[in-house]
Inverse folding.
């Protein structure tokens, strides 16, 4: 069983979603199923089928989240330091072709959001960066071809 790396904030979000699913969504869907059953013939009862489908989704999501919690390896980024790129690092890169700079934080898969400059640890760029230091170059194969980046700065915030 492999560990799932995540930040403390992501872990807290998952725990909160589990609480909501168990305390709010699950009771609501149970009430909806009971109410729909009172309407009679279940074979042609759209509300009943929709509620059962919703229940199935909730139970599947709960199983998925509880599995992630069980396998979670919570990493407190504020306690990390150094100049080598690893999980939680915020890396400033310079495109070697255009000299354009960008920064990305390397986070768990569930936290990844490229618009927020949060890069999944399993992405090709993050995998190329892991273990490298300031001043090193990395080459990543992208859909548009190979790209080269130089690591300008490594920080842990």
């Amino acid at each position: 069983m492999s560990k799932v790396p995540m930040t403390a904030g992501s872990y807290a979000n998952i725990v909160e979603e589990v609480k909501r699913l168990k305390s709010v969504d699950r009771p609501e869907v149970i009430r909806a199923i009971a109410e729909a059953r009172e309407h009679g013939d279940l074979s042609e009862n759209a509300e009943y089928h929709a509620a059962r489908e919703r229940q199935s989704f909730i139970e599947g999501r709960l199983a998925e989240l509880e599995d992630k919690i069980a396998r979670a390896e919570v990493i407190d980024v504020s306690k990390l330091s150094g100049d080598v790129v690893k999980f939680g690092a915020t890396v400033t890169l310079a495109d070697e072709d255009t000299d354009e700079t960008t920064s990305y934080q390397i986070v768990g898969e569930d936290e990844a959001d490229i618009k927020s400059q949060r890069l999944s640890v399993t992405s090709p760029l993050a995998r190329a960066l892991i273990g490298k230091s300031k001043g090193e170059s990395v080459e990543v194969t992208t859909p548009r071809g190979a790209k080269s980046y130089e690591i300008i700065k490594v920080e842990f915030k």
Summary: The chain has a mean pLDDT of 90. The chain has two domains: 4-75, 82-155.
